[in-house]
Amino acid sequence: MSESTLSAGHVRTPLALRFPSVLVFLAVLGLFTLGVTILSEGFGIGAISTSFVKTLGKTLCLCLVALAMDLVWGYCGILSLGHMAFFGLGGYAIGMWLMYERTRLIVVDSLAASELPPTAQEISDGIATQIFGVVGASEFPPVWAFAHSLPIQLAFVVLVPGLLALVFGWLAFRSRVTGVYLSILTQAMTLALSLYLFQNDSGLRGNNGLSGLQNLPGLDAVPQATVSVWFFWGSAFALGAGYVLCAWIVSGKFGSVIRAIRDDEARVRFLGYPVEAFKLFVFTLTAIIAGIAGALYYPQAGIINPTEIAPIASIYLAVWVAIGGRGRLYGAVIGAAFVSLLSTWFTGGQAPDINLGFYRIQWVDWWTVLLGLSFVLVTLFAPKGIGGLVDIIIDRTTPNRHGADLGPDQGALREREADK
Amino acid sequence: MLNWVRLCVALICLAAPANAQNAEAPIQQVLQEHAEIIAKSSRQTIGPAIDALAASGLPEARLVLAKWQNKEMWQNEETGLFVYAEEVDRDTLRIFDFADSSEIGEVPDDDYDQLKPNSGIRGMIGAALVQFQLTDPDAKMRRQALAAIERDADASHLPALRKAAEAEEHPGLAARMDRLERLLTIRFEEDESTRIAAIESFRGDLGVDVRATLNPLLATRLETASELPDSADVARELDPGSDALSREAAYDLLVSEGINRPRISRADKRAALVANIEDGSVAGVQVATLDSESARDMAYAALAETGVVQPVATEAEVDAAIDSQVFFERYIGAPPEIALAAAAVLQSIENKVTVNQALDLGLDALSLASIYFLAAIGLAITFGVMGVINMAHGEFIMMGAYTGYVVQQIVPDYTLSIILALPLAFAITFGAGVAMERLVIRWLYHRPLETLLATFGISIALQQIAKNIFGTQARPLTSPDWLDGSLVFNDIVAISYIRIAIFVLALLFLAMFLLVMNRTRLGLEVRAVTQNPRMAASMGINPDRINMLTFGFGSGIAGIAGVAIGLYAKVTSEMGADYIVQSFMTVVVGGVGNIWGTLLGATLVGSVQKGIEWLNPSNTLAAQTYMILFIILFIQFRPRGIIALKGRAAEA
Predict the structure, then answer these.
(1) Which among A289, A313, A372, B110 is placed 20 to 30 Å from B53, CA to CA?
(2) Is this complex's ipTM strictly greater than 0.95?
(3) What is the CA radius of gyration of chain A?
């Protein structure tokens, strides 16, 4: 908001000092990126496989969307169950260009051998048949109107989730839908979106989704080992930038206001702040961050389909943030990285089975149960999540309030500033 | 005199048995008249013979036709007389006279030729036989004959049917005959006013057979002319480029009428150009420049000038040709007066069909609403009354359904197993609900977001556990026989008994909820604890116990709902997730904390979804999408639901 007018009169301390975790985080991220690059097949000694580099790159994207989730939920108190839908929309936006352009190159290649030079219509028909044959169509749906243009699709990565969040948030916040009602409403929005995308005539290939996204058009000569590292760098850069941005937002007065909204919305409104505008800004900004994260994630995953947008994905996102520790940015990153990597390990079949004699626990089947129950346990016994360990380690527990209650949501984590 | 008599007797005895037949009997004469074509037995020529028999008015004609159809009619090789016979053994026949059905005697089968009508002829004989069956004293035969005509009617049936309808005394059959007679009149009657009267008599009739009879009368043919002809049989003018007639189809008609020359498809044009490439150019045009349709058109035109290919119509010619002609539909199914009458009656029928479809849709919506209500009523207790967000509510529904499935595996009798499953499902989910309340939810009261997350965790875990136990495939929950079938009101409005059962169950639940909440001690205590737990506690109510019981009660109802929903849909581990969002929507739309609101919410959500499905019948996914969008918008205008609590209760 109006940072400059608010801070006029005194010199602000630099962000790094106000928010010491930024430097630590950037240093760790930088070292990690360097390490992965050195160990990768594309640019280093090849100690870790290309697919694992991709897994790590995808994890960084998930950390970025978790960061957005933490900003909107941990700091602003809006438990959105729709941010993975924004993530998926970003993926779809970039996936459309990747798929269109690659198919176009293939079609032009194959038509070049024919006797007559191809007309524009023939090329377009050829691409459409290639892409939409699987859903029984052979013409481009209107949503693909700009799929040929990378800049426009890149703009869509930001605009589509941003506009959806803006419209939805405006509708929801202006009618004062809050708390669990808002969560259920966002979940309904996510469900509606995924059901819509599941239809064959949605124009986005129904449940087949978009595929072959790992192949960059025109860069067939570049091996995947190299491409994977490029995307890893991109993801790391986006995560670092996202962290700085989020830290900057929550460290200033704006951050204080949104935390206050989280703790007692009515009181903030009474003090004269336009609560709805603050919430709408945070909601839309985080949707855009989620869209960007998705646009980086899906070229590494190679395929996107409506299952990725289903409400359960957004619930897992909330799980990551809660396990990592909401209300602190590094908590979200730790949670997303920890749970998603662990999940990959368990569901990938690497985890050893446990033989109980009468029953053999196969983690592929039981991991989800473990995750669900650990979620209950974290909510009940460790509301601060993994991030709470940091508090213990640096021996700075939250001040004793002697049982005083600061707001209606006793479970929400309060920052130390609230007490000053 | 005596001698003459004796001579006669001797002659008869000598000639016996074959000549004992009366060659002069009228039926035999009819047969003899057509003996040649009967013996020839060809479908093309047999018609007159069958008609003559049917029209003879002789009572024996039916016997002849029946025997002929059954391949039991034989012809004497010498005399050409027809008899019917049964085979005594391989070589011997016992023959009977058609005239009086008397046995003539046993003869070797060498003297007789069996008539073997093929299936086509047998069908024609059958059609002729129908008129006799229609007047058969046995009502069953008459019914069969009617069914045969309904299946495959023929112009010849009409007079017979009229005659039979006049004489028919059985009221049910008479009505059926009358209806069939009118239908046949529409199809085969020559006299126009009679036909129109018959058509008019069906105004507003919902029967599918009526529409099937009337629709062919409205058959039209697409025609074109330079001006719209001023004749009565022009059904309507079509505008080329509209939905009813594309420009392509219009031009195809012009081409097939020989008015204009054909167009060429892009693929054919391309093939023609490719076939005529010479030294990198086509008719003097460089191949490399042929990268647009207009360039190819020009190259093709140049090619046509050299005479190598046929000239084709250009787009401009096509447009001019289409614009200069009018296109219209002409009635070909019937004369225009009849077609117009049929169109008017069909319109009246369509109107009535629409009304009935709306009625049927209403029933569908009602049953969907009762399913949503069943799914949501447990939630109305835990969420609406207690304010606890239980995202595992759907999994309680699933547990109930799986309980029903397991009970059916043990108890094979479906009726008994359902009766057992209902209380068992209640008990199991009640237990699960109480356990969940004690272990998790109790610690999270007044922390709704955390309750939501924790119950999500439980939901995920329960879903996966069910998947691990029962597998991913859908399990059937079979309904008892007496719930099969449906209640049919007419050809359009029908509702299956299982939906009625679900509706009744929903009403029962509503009654039970109202009874428990308003008339029992438990209900009073629940309301007290909900409104003000501290005050309630100071009045001697144990809030912990009440919360536990209430939550268990809501969960138990979800279990029973699960059995009912399982009967209607498939039992899978994900079935709960399918209902959870809708259930919450139902409660929120209706207004939290009010059972009537939940009822209204379920009705609204059910009707809206059915309404959208009706507008776009091919796509239930789209219906769900738009339904959710509708709810999101609805909440904009009534954030507190249809029935919003006011005053102190709203704050609780």
Answers:
(1) B110
(2) no
(3) 23
Amino acid at B429: T
Q: Alpha-carbon distance A386 to A395, whole Å?
A: 15
- Residue B457 is nearest to which of A171, A175, A375, comparing CB atoms? A375
Instruction: With a cut of 70, list the residues of chain B below it in pLDDT.
Output: 1-22, 617-618, 645-652
Beta carbon pairs, A and B, within 8 Å: 160
Identify whether the C-beta of residue B339 lies closer than 8 Å to the C-beta of residue B218.
yes
Q: What is the DSSP string of B570-583?
A: -B-TTHHHHHHHHH
- DSSP, residue by residue, B312-348: ---HHHHHHHHHHSEEEEEE-SS-HHHHHHHHHHHHH
Scored b (16 or more CB within 10 A) or e, B426-457 reads bebbbebbbebbeebbeebbebbbbbbbbbbb
User: Structure tokens of B51?
Assistant: 């008609």
Per CB-CB distance under 8 Å, the chain B contacts of A190 are none
Task: Determine whether the interchain pair A116/B581 forms a contact, defined as Cβ–Cβ distance below 8 Å.
Answer: no
Q: Which of A115, A317, A353, A365 to mutate to test the interface with B (most CBs of B within 10 A)?
A: A115
Query: Which among B296, B444, B628 has the least Cβ separation from residue A191?
Result: B628
* Nearest CA-CA distance, residue B294 and chain A, Å: 10
Closest CA to B491 of B152, B181, B209: B209
Closest CA to A299 of A195, A244, A219: A219
Q: Is the peptide bond before A217 cis (omega within 30 degrees of 0)?
A: no
Q: What is the 3-state secondary structure (H, E, C) of A339-398?
A: HHHHHHHHHCCCCCCEECCCCEECHHHHHHHHHHHHHHHHHHHCCCCCHHHHHHHCCCCC
The whole-model pTM stands at: 0.77
- Say which residues have a Cβ less than 8 Å from residue B221's Cβ, sequence separation at least 6: B329, B330, B332
pLDDT above 70 (res A417): no
Whether the pLDDT of residue A97 is over 90: the answer is yes
Alpha-helix runs per DSSP H in B569-641: 575-590, 595-615, 620-637
Q: Which residues of B touch A198 (CB under 8 A)?
A: 621
In this prediction, residue A299 carries a pLDDT of: 93
Provide DSSP, B124-167: HHHHHHHHHHHT-SSHHHHHHHHHHHHHS--TTHHHHHHHHHHH
Between CA B479 and CA B500 the distance in angstroms is 13
Of B544, B227, B553, the C-alpha closest to B381 is B553
Return d(Cα B412, Cα B639) in angstroms, integer: 48
Give the three-class secondary structure for B246: coil
Considering just the CA atoms, what is the radius of gyration of chain B in Å? 40
B62 touches chain A (CB under 8 A): no
Contact yes or no for A171 and B636 at CB 8 A = yes
Our CA angle for B628, B580, B421, nearest 5°, is: 140
- Between CA B371 and CA B599 the distance in angstroms is 11
Element (H, E) at B62: helix B61-69
- Our CA angle for B640, B644, B646, nearest 5°, is 120
